[in-house]
From TrEMBL:
The active site is at H257, D308. This is Citrate synthase. InterPro entries: 2-MeCitrate/Citrate_synth_II, Citrate_synth-like_lrg_a-sub, Citrate_synth-like_sm_a-sub, Citrate_synthase, Citrate_synthase_AS, Citrate_synthase_bac-typ, Citrate_synthase_sf. The keyword Disulfide bond does not apply. The keyword Transit peptide does not apply. Belongs to the citrate synthase family. NCBIfam families: cit_synth_II, PRK14034.1, PRK14035.1. One of its GO terms (molecular function) is citrate synthase activity. One of its GO terms (cellular component) is cytosol. GO terms for biological process: carbohydrate metabolic process; tricarboxylic acid cycle. It catalyses: oxaloacetate + acetyl-CoA + H2O = citrate + CoA + H(+). Pathway: Carbohydrate metabolism; tricarboxylic acid cycle; isocitrate from oxaloacetate: step 1/2.
Length: 371
């Protein structure tokens, strides 16, 4: 049996949700550049779940469904309060809370189309409320209830801070949500599909996807980028920091990609936003450091930034705690996970590859006293 490490290049399914062709990303055939410049995140949710753009009426209906389902049950807020808030990573809290959403949904085990849609809305609507409630609780603050009159992006920032966000913050955050929504068969989406291909439920699929997104080789890289920028501290330190990492053969977070070779088409949008926002907050040194790192990595290793590199300074400039960056990725990506889970159900077959066994064979059992 030939083994392809990390399943590189293996085509594991057909899909009509998003495509990466010649380093261009499209959702259902719409180029990511056009979507990033024009679409609201709610339109993207509709597009991924229905594989067409919504009419105005359909969009309003989706927005209403999300708004009506965003409030968390008291029991779930109490479960969040009971977590060791001063030490648990927000991704672990989110993973557990999403699992609990399934526990509190009396229809969690129903698998018909309508029940699955209601579960999808429940997840998409409540993930932002979970992340923001957790963030406030661990600061000794009470969660802020979602507002029905705000957009998805504005509502997240409002629930986080209890203040109505500035238009520029809403625009940047909406764009970041659009850019992170789906990405073909990335590790967390594949995880979700493997899980539900056993005909397990949507909550289980999303819970396992959150576990996969958490790792620093995937979604966790955005938090790690900010850690790196903080450690470097000043543009004058970039050279020695990066050279040291290269000598130690350590990875530079936010660079490299399994699929893109020339570059990640999402990065340029985040780069533009990072420039604008760091100027506004008076932290241009973050952008200057990023540009210098980008130049060095290109020259020394021909590596280019992925979606996680500039998103870090965008979120930082919006005043967001660094360990919330990956949960925010999940708030967006859950739209893609759900689209893939529903697509998997539509044409399901158990996902079960093989392993090439390389361990010992034909050993004789050794009794305990002889070992
Ligand atoms: C949303 C997302 O998930 S985007 C990705 C987020 N992850 C990161 O930013 C973490 C840093 N990047 C990486 O670890 C990798 O580039 C990955 C995981 C994204 C892709 O990994 P793979 O396709 O498996 O590539 P792999 O790790 O085998 O790297 C290939 C070569 O490029 C090098 N390389 C790849 N990425 C990096 C990096 N960020 N820094 C330094 N070297 C790198 C590897 O060391 C390896 O070199 P070698 O052939 O001399 O040993
Ligand atoms: O596709 C991947 O491997 C990782 C990625 O960029 C994403 O999930 O957005």
């Amino acid at each position: 049996m030939a083994v392809t490490r990390g399943l590189e290049g293996i085509i594991a399914t057909t899909s009509s949700i998003s495509s990466i062709i010649d380093d261009s990303l499209a959702y259902v055939g719409y180029d990511i550049d056009a979507l990033a410049e024009n679409a609201s995140f709610e339109e993207i949710i509709y597009l991924l779940w229905n594989r067409r753009l919504p009419t105005n009426q359909e969009l309003i209906q989706l927005q209403q469904e999300l708004a009506e389902n965003a409030e968390l049950p008291k029991s779930l807020i109490n479960q969040l309060r009971m977590m060791p808030l001063d030490q648990v990573h927000p991704m672990s809290a989110l993973r557990s809370a999403v699992s609990l959403l399934g526990v509190y949904d009396e229809n969690a085990e129903l698998m018909d189309e309508k029940s699955n849609y209601l579960k999808a809305i429940n997840l998409q609507a409540k993930l932002p409320t979970i992340v923001t409630a957790f963030s406030r609780l661990r600061k000794g603050l009470e969660p802020v209830s979602p507002r029905k009159d705000l957009s998805f992006a504005a509502n997240f920032l409002y629930m986080l801070t209890a203040k109505e966000p500035e238009p520029i913050a809403i625009e940047a955050f909406n764009k970041a949500l659009v850019l992170h929504a789906d990405h073909e068969l990335n590790a967390s989406t594949f995880t979700a599909r493997v899980c539900v291909a056993t005909l397990s439920d949507i909550y289980s699929g999303v819970t396992s996807a959150i576990g996969a997104l958490k790792g620093p080789l995937h979604g966790g890289a955005n938090e790690a980028v900010m850690k790196m920028l903080t450690e470097i501290g000043d543009v004058d330190n970039v050279d020695s920091y990066i050279k040291d990492k290269m000598i130690k053969k350590e990875k530079i977070m936010g660079f490299g990609h399994r699929v893109y070779r020339k570059g990640d088409p999402r990065a340029k949008h985040l780069k533009q936003m990072a420039k604008k926002l760091t100027e506004l907050t008076g932290e241009s040194h973050l952008f200057d450091m990023s540009i210098k790192i980008e130049g060095m990595l290109k020259q020394e290793k021909n590596l280019v930034p992925n979606v996680d590199f500039f998103s870090a300074s965008v979120y930082h400039s919006l005043g967001i705690d660094h360990d919330l960056f990956t949960p925010i990725f999940a708030v967006s990506r859950v739209s893609g996970w759900i689209a893939h889970i529903l697509e998997q159900y539509e044409n399901n077959r158990l996902i079960r590859p093989r392993a090439d066994y390389v361990g010992p064979e034909r050993l004789s059992y050794v009794p305990m006293q002889e070992r």
